[in-house]
């Protein structure tokens, strides 16, 4: 339990609750859920520029990271086809992956296929089912993909000024504006309460909010004097109570709840908003292919990690289909912007390629 880990190291309840958010981030779980302590540790593994456990902002936004990877691949001779949807994996008479067929019918032949899509899309939508073991298919279908996350992107015409640390008179960013700001985290009981509401199909009335202002460090993201605010919020159920859909009314009602909470910490925030983009779990699934809206391609619970990710006997990136590999967050070691799954999968694929 994360509570037990944090109790050993800290006394302050607000500090413990703030750190506990990393135990439940992206997970339909409470700080009191057994096993969620692993997710807390997962979020401090690795390093950034030699600093252990550190996180950073990507200059130019997260899309710039994808572009950097793309440029590195192109420099090595890779051909990248954007906006080309894959229809299915092409299999030879021997059952091996031989490339992909695009939705427009174009065949792209290759000696091996690496899929960065989720296990659900890779094996349930893109691979002929008759070629897969039934127990493997059942396991993939049973992966817990519940997600509590609603992401809200906000454009504001002034920097938020918090009661706890008011802005300077010249309006310049202060050190806390460069950090991750956690709201509604005065105690772990608040996180548990927010989680409990979602388990009954109701968006949290006092959601856990992680607020970042990347334009403070990267001014090119917004016009001068304006900022972009990124809100990572939970808990919101994928399916609302009574089967009610996440329509515009439901989206805006929840966003209003989030903004009311921020207003209590930073008066004037609501008046500064000039645009907002609300992405509920179904939106994250539809737009980004995240199963259930889960940012990790599947829960990071102990029964879905290590040798069991994405399924027992298939944690080594190879799949039941020879020459088809899984290299995304649904593979070991799971989610997070670290590239470990891709690097490991590439090494396995290269090892097999030399044998071909």
Walk me through what this model shows.
The chain has eleven helices and twelve strands. The protein is of the alpha+beta class and 356 residues long. The protein has two domains: 2-56 and 148-288, no CATH class; 62-144 and 291-354, FAD/NAD(P)-binding domain (3-Layer(bba) Sandwich). The strands form four sheets. It has a five-stranded antiparallel sheet. Strands 3-4-5 form a three-stranded antiparallel sheet, with no helix packed on it. Strands 1-2 form a two-stranded antiparallel ribbon. The protein is globular.
Percent of residues in beta strands? Answer: 15-25%
Class from helix and strand fractions: alpha+beta
Oligomer state of the chains in this structure: single chain
Mean pLDDT: 93
The end-to-end span amounts to 46 Å
Question: Total strand count, please?
Answer: 12
Number of helices: 11
- Main sheet: strand order: 8-9-10-7-11
Structural shape? globular
Order of helices and strands: HHHEEHEEEEHHEEHEEHHEHEH
Proportion of helical residues: 25-40%
Largest sheet: 5 strands, antiparallel
Sequence stretches where pLDDT stays below 50 over 5 or more residues: none
> What is the count of structural domains?
2
Radius of gyration: 22 Å
Organism: Oceanites oceanicus
InterPro entries: FAD/NAD-bd_sf (IPR036188)
Protein name: PYRD2 protein
Family: Belongs to the carotenoid/retinoid oxidoreductase family.
What's the structural blueprint in terms of helices and strands?
Elements: H1 2-9, H2 13-24, H3 36-42, E1 47-48, E2 51-52, H4 62-75, E3 86-91, E4 97-102, E5 107-109, E6 113-115, H5 119-125, H6 134-142, E7 150-156, E8 181-183, H7 188-199, E9 208-212, E10 227-234, H8 248-265, H9 269-272, E11 273-279, H10 281-288, E12 324-326, H11 340-355
Parallel strand pairs: 6-12
Antiparallel strand pairs: 1-2, 3-4, 4-5, 7-10, 7-11, 8-9, 9-10
């Amino acid at each position: 339990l994360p509570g037990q880990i944090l109790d050993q190291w800290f006394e302050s309840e607000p500090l413990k609750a703030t750190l506990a958010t990393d135990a439940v981030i992206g997970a339909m779980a409470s700080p009191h859920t057994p096993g969620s302590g692993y997710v807390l540790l997962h979020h401090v593994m690795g390093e950034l520029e030699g600093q252990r456990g550190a996180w950073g902002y990507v200059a130019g936004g997260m899309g710039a990271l994808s572009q950097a990877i793309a440029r590195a691949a192109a420099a090595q001779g890779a051909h990248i086809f954007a906006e080309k949807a894959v229809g299915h994996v092409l299999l030879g008479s021997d059952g091996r992956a031989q490339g992909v067929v695009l939705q427009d019918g174009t065949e792209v032949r290759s000696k091996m296929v690496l899929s960065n899509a989720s296990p659900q899309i890779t094996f349930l939508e893109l691979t002929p089912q008759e070629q897969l073991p039934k127990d493997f298919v059942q396991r993939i279908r049973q992966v817990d993909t519940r997600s509590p996350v609603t992401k809200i992107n906000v454009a504001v015409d002034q920097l938020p000024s918090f009661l706890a640390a008011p802005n300077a008179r010249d309006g310049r960013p202060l050190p806390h504006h460069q950090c991750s700001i956690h709201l509604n985290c005065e105690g772990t009981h608040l996180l548990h309460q927010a989680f409990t509401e979602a388990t009954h199909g109701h968006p949290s009335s006092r959601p856990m909010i992680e607020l970042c202002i990347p334009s403070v460090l990267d001014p090119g993201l917004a016009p001068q004097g304006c900022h972009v605010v990124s809100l990572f919020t939970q808990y919101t159920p994928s399916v609302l109570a009574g089967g009610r859909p996440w329509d515009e009314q439901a989206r805006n009602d929840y966003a209003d709840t989030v903004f009311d909470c921020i207003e209590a910490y930073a008066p004037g925030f609501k008046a500064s908003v000039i645009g907002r983009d609300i992405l509920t779990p179904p939106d994250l699934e539809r737009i980004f292919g995240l199963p259930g809206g889960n940012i990790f391609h599947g829960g990071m619970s102990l029964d879905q990690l290590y040798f069991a990710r994405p399924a027992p006997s298939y944690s080594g990136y190879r799949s039941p289909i020879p020459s088809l590999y899984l290299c995304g967050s649904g593979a070991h070691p799971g989610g997070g912007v670290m590239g470990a799954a891709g690097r490991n999968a590439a090494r396995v694929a290269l090892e097999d390629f030399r044998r071909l």
